[in-house]
Specification:
It comes from Ulvibacterium marinum. Pfam families: DUF72. This is DUF72 domain-containing protein. It is a single chain. The chain is built from ten helices and nine strands. With about 300 residues, it is of the alpha/beta class. The chain has a single domain, classed as Protein of unknown function UPF0759 (TIM Barrel, Alpha-Beta Barrel). Helix 9 packs parallel to helix 10. It is globular.
């Protein structure tokens, strides 16, 4: 993922901002719920070419191996085209019972049709096919184009209010006006919260403004983008502490996806993060096997 890439990451203040005040109010609603914490950590893709130093020599099926090491995938492939039912069925069959897919909604809906009237037949086809993942389908996410601004607010309202409730949804907004205008931001956050839709957090170097720290349901959906810099590890340490704090306050669902400008290092950062998360949150997530030990990248 090259979104938010900068030439000199050492100059960026990567500290995690304070929580939005309404995030704490939200946690209070869930604090007493008797639900176990669910944690998913994964990469954005399973392609061997991108994830070098991850697959053992002789690996014949990349997804089968990937899903033996991680419990989820942020499925970016579904952004580029709509796959046939047999493809989803194949993915379902190759993966363990506890594996989850978090597919990105196809770009025809978000970028080409931009949530207009013509987007809905495409969305219906996409949902009907994606449903073939059955119980392995996690939260789907809609990523809007960088230039999709609040002038199209009515489209967002219609999309959110008509979203089929049997599917979990997260949304990511990138245009700066969604966050620079406090009134617009509050209206967006409340719309998502009222409809139990996750507000995606993106931690990337060049766009610190979208670290809004405003959760809108009992789900932290975090897309972490490393900078291929030694600070990537300390940033993950900070996230471990943040998630520990949110867990103590009532958070029940963590979905954390590790990206890199050079994706081959994503599994290595993921291993480090899972180890630290296991220790701090008293979890027992599987530690993926890699050919390079974490913390030896830089």
């Amino acid at each position: 993922m090259k979104f938010g890439k900068v030439e000199h990451p050492e100059l960026i203040d990567f500290s995690i901002p304070q929580d939005h005040p309404d995030t704490e109010v939200l946690f209070a609603k869930y604090k007493e719920e008797d639900q176990p914490l669910k944690v998913n950590v994964g990469c954005a893709k399973w392609n061997r070419q991108d994830l070098k130093n991850f697959y053992p020599r002789g690996t014949k099926d990349e997804l089968a191996y990937y899903s033996s090491q991680f419990n989820c995938i942020e499925l970016n492939a579904t952004f580029y085209r709509i796959f046939p039912a047999k493809t989803y069925e194949g993915w379902y069959e190759k993966t363990p019972d506890n594996f989850k897919f978090f597919p990105k909604i196809v770009q025809n809906v978000s970028h080409l049709r931009r949530l207009n009237e013509q987007a809905y037949p495409i969305l219906e086809e996409y949902l009907n096919l994606t449903a073939n993942l059955k119980e392995k389908l996690g939260t789907m996410f809609l990523q809007m184009h960088n230039n999709f601004s609040p002038k199209d607010w009515d489209r967002v309202v219609r999309f959110v209010e008509n979203w089929p409730k049997e599917f979990s949804l997260a949304m990511e907004f990138r245009h700066t006006d969604w966050f620079n205008d406090e009134k617009v931001a509050q209206e967006l956050y409340h719309l998502l919260e009222e409809n139990t839709i996750a507000n995606i957090l993106v931690d990337t170097a060049g766009r610190r403004d979208i670290m809004h720290m405003r959760l809108t349901n009992n789900e932290a959906f975090i897309r972490y983008v490393g900078a291929n810099h030694e600070s990537d590890y300390s940033r993950l340490d900070d996230w471990v502490e943040k998630l520990y704090d949110w867990k103590q306050k009532g958070l029940k669902n963590i979905h954390f996806f590790v990206h890199q400008n050079l994706e081959l290092e994503s599994p290595l950062l993921s291993v480090y993060f899972i180890q630290k998360l296991n220790e701090r949150l008293n979890l027992d997530l599987k530690i993926p096997e890699t050919l390079i030990k974490p913390n030896t990248l830089f």
